[in-house]
Amino acid sequence: MSTFRSDFLRTLDERGFIHQISDEEGLDKLFATETVTAYIGFDPTAPSLHAGGLIQIMMLHWMQATGHRPVSLMGGGTGMVGDPSFKDDARQLMTVDTIEANIASIKKVFANYLSYGEGPRDALMINNADWLRDLNYLEFLRDVGRHFSVNRMLSFDSVKTRLDREQSLSFLEFNYMILQAYDFVELNKRYGVRLQMGGSDQWGNIVNGIDLGHRMGTPQLYALTSPLLTTASGAKMGKSLNGAVWLNADMLGAYEFWQYWRNTEDADVPRFLKLYTTLPMDEIARLSLLAGSEINEVKKILATEITAMLHGRSAAEAAAETARKTFEEGGLAADLPSVEVGSGELEAGIGVLAAFAEKAGLVASNGEARRQVKSGGLKVNDVVVTDDKQVLTLRDLTPEGVIKLSFGKKKHVLLRPA
RNA sequence: GGGGGAGUGUCCCGAGCGGCAAAGGGGGCGGACUGUAAAUCCGCUGGCUAUGCCUUCGUAGGUUCGAGUCCUACCUCCCCCA
């Protein structure tokens, strides 16, 4: 379909969120005529979502912005099973405590993108543990299990990859898609949910839910998936210099988050502006034209806009300013990530290797630090370290009273005497 | 239940006649070149109080001066038969 009538689908379409829809026309009509409730499931496999999950959150955001009701479903129940879709190995089983802790932590981020409440268009946060944890096995098998054909489930790509590689798929994991399908139906019954969205890897699971709905008498349900995110050169989204790009502020600061987007590949800039910012489309079109000479300026706007949504406008601007001082003036920005060290320790002297590995945590081990010295990757106060026996003392403090440690061109940590 | 095959460096894949910190990829990281980009080229990719020491090849034992490599038991997975 070339044009959608509903604001929601038109927005998603023009911004590049849509990979597949189960029934474009039907769904468009639904969105055009009523307030729709739709959900996306989030697995509590870590204490924070990372950049890869941002696209789902943005879809929920646009739902609300266009007058509908988004539901974020926490997988407190399904998390006990683990989604095997397109995975090679079974996941480590998580304890209930871990799952609950992860959910509590993940939740914090959503309020930055959605407004919650009791109104008809206020977002909902729901945990599928509410209905999954107390299921009666036999009842469940008879009411729900009988609608599933194992033959059909085995035919899904998400499972086939696992089987083709001759890797085992436990019965536990195999049940994941049944539970997810059941979630969809249950959410329809409880909250009138009509649509489930997700990454393209979720297509099979979502369609299963639609089928189950048919058999269990729900109204027509719909599926909408977003494209799998990779950068223009094919790398997976969401990994930064120091690891995963977490959304929770306590796991990744605003500065590092900003840096991640600042380093976007040229070819990705227009696409990311559409997906991850709420800038109007004509503004994005204008910025995309600048992509030649001023692309670096556009990348800063991109980074600042995305960071502002998550961490707040002032934190985003502070991050931009820190980066400007650090990279453009080659100077020393006081609010780079910093680590405190006892001034007594510094008086006694800290070996460079230990400073980089143990104190700043910029490298994984002393050995790694030693190797980096050999390839010239470490700098103290912008001077390349050439001797791995060098010792940092009070004399290395800059006039600002810190020691700047750099690993590569982009990673900097300040040592600050306590 | 019977028979056959497999598990290697804590990112992944994958070689490995009893002398092995273990080939080769991919990925990742650093350097050069650039624009905090991409592409390309070069280097690195167990730990440490380091001319040495310690820990690694599914787990636990055993043979041996010496075991990823041989033997035994166990665990897990795959395939065939029942």
Automatic annotation (TrEMBL):
Q: State the family it belongs to.
A: Belongs to the class-I aminoacyl-tRNA synthetase family. TyrS type 1 subfamily.
Query: What is the scientific name of the source organism?
Result: Ancylobacter amanitiformis
Q: What assembly does the database describe for this protein?
A: Homodimer.
Location of the motif 'KMSKS' region = 236-240
Function in brief:
Catalyzes the attachment of tyrosine to tRNA(Tyr) in a two-step reaction: tyrosine is first activated by ATP to form Tyr-AMP and then transferred to the acceptor end of tRNA(Tyr).
Question: What protein name applies here?
Answer: Tyrosine--tRNA ligase
What reaction(s) does this enzyme catalyze?
Answer: tRNA(Tyr) + L-tyrosine + ATP = L-tyrosyl-tRNA(Tyr) + AMP + diphosphate + H(+)
Question: Which residues of the sequence carry a binding annotation for ATP?
Answer: K239
GO-annotated molecular function: tyrosine-tRNA ligase activity
